[in-house]
Input
Amino acid sequence: LAKTTQPISMDSYEGQEVNITCSHNNIATNDYITWYQQFPSQGPRFIIQGYKTKVTNEVASLFIPADRKSSTLSLPRVSLSDTAVYYCLVWADSGAGSYQLTFGKGTKLSVIP
Amino acid sequence: GAVVSQHPSWVICKSGTSVKIECRSLDFQATTMFWYRQFPKQSLMLMATSNEGSKATYEQGVEKDKFLINHASLTLSTLTVTSAHPEDSSFYICSARERKFDEKLFFGSGTQLSVL
Output
């Protein structure tokens, strides 16, 4: 079971790039790495997903080293509205309808004016 | 991204009553859906995995007779909290596995349950 470890909190000024790293030392071959954003009283919102190397979309980049034991979410030029909790999730279909799905504690990002 | 609709957003009920929460995948078919609960300032905790047309798989410590899950169609899963008590008050969230273009999990907006 791939357990994830993230910093509990981070602060950043508006306009800066923010990098949040997640450790998942026990990641399995078939595991996906997915990052979510959650605001209070809302469900997690999908940000980005990767398997290896680098993935980029319109809101973020995800860097995954060759050993896949960690991943880094990069948010370019954050704004106040990016203040939220960010979760990295490592998950996979274990077969026969069972899944390995464990959320870590998440990283509370506070963006400062 | 794909849309998962969850209803209601919040519900208040009396102790001893049952509450049903619906989770729908709006623009894709979801053979697998998941139910979580989240307490204030804590992470999401997986309660059960729901596969269309079969019985749900519950995580250790989750009472299956307390939290009834039905996944009767490829776009709808329901969670019924039976004989709710104040300790069942929590934020419940569903997610659905989207496989049309890639393997992804999308989440509903959550349901805040308050049991009086």
